[in-house]
């Protein structure tokens, strides 16, 4: 009989390992990766293309190049493509990115073949109709004009521009860039889109591999991305206009990705500083001062680097005080050791969040893809919890001293 007067036993969570991922060769040295989840009756297939910012001349080429795939094929109009996908109970997702871009379909097992056929048609037979392209450009410019009126959007893109300059990670769209983009540049970029790996997860028929090889037989050899790998000295960017009621504050610096030996030390330090709802930044600037609804810090790992970001929106009158409090919290981390209890709370939160991140239907293949695209050893996840638990109070102090210095942070602020 259950004795409710006794608290349940507490067990340490053990390390989590990636399940087996099957791998099959495709043409041009590319591969198909598969994770089977039987009895779910649903699947996700993702075409991960060598068509991110690092393969383009600008952000507009990536954005419009991917979106033109949804504007119709040689056999169907864009409306007919959407209707066909809807009739299958499926969902198409096209996601431009910095290193890679993806074209994904979420669908039902019973319509697996039909989904793959329409995905193949979208990939290989886009119409690249000039009228559809002109219409897309108009919609993109209108969308961009609205975004540029939002302080949070403008401060975000300006921070990347400030940190990375003309490096592809610093690419941002502009109205002029969209206006100047020609359909032949989109056709040329399509060659990058046709260089891809495929990631398949879920429940699907036994003949999936042969069907994929038939429908996605053309896979182009991807040339090594040619761009200047050097990154300029970061510069502050401020935009002042009375129309902005709030100040959108972004502070950041270029940093390292998952392959760096200090990665785990830094992500635990960041979590404590501003990575979750119970962080020091949230307790100070949201709960104690009431300056904002939310303030967070994050590390964004990419293939050729990474950047660290502190982000918040506050009333203009509180901008200076908010910056002062951020600086104070950084100085505290650099000068005073955290308590064992605070560090343990943060580590337990991170371990729990990590374990929960494997619970969604297609999580395992996504976790695998993250490591595979950044050439990181697959033991990364199996040792993740252990690496988190090993972080000490001294590690937090030393990491803060080495990588967190308020005066080294680049500012992007949009406000009045």
Low-confidence stretches: none
Query: What's the number of domains?
Result: 2
Taken from the alpha-carbon principal axes, the silhouette is: globular
Summed up, the helix count is 16
Termini separation (Å)? 65 Å
Provide the β-strand percentage band: 15-25%
CATH homology superfamily of the largest domain: Metalloenzyme, LuxS/M16 peptidase-like
What is the CATH class of the largest domain? Alpha Beta
> What is the topology, as strand order, of the major beta sheet?
1-2-6-3-5-4
Query: What class, by secondary structure content?
Result: alpha+beta
Portion in helices = 40-55%
Radius of gyration: 24 Å
Give the overall pLDDT as a whole number: 94
Number of strands: 11
Concise description?
With 416 residues, this protein is an alpha+beta fold.
Question: Could you list some keywords that capture this structure?
Answer:
single chain, 416 residues, alpha+beta, Cytochrome Bc1 Complex, Chain A, domain 1, 2 domains, six-stranded mixed beta sheet, five-stranded mixed beta sheet, 16 helices, globular
Walk me through what this model shows.
This protein is an alpha+beta fold and 416 residues long. The protein has 2 domains: 22-215, 2-Layer Sandwich (Cytochrome Bc1 Complex, Chain A, domain 1); 237-415, Cytochrome Bc1 Complex, Chain A, domain 1. Helix content is 43%, strand content 19%. It has 16 helices and 11 strands. The strands form 2 sheets. Strands 1-2-6-3-5-4 form a 6-stranded mixed beta sheet, with helices on both faces. Strands 7-11-8-10-9 form a 5-stranded mixed beta sheet. Strand 1 and strand 2 form a beta hairpin.
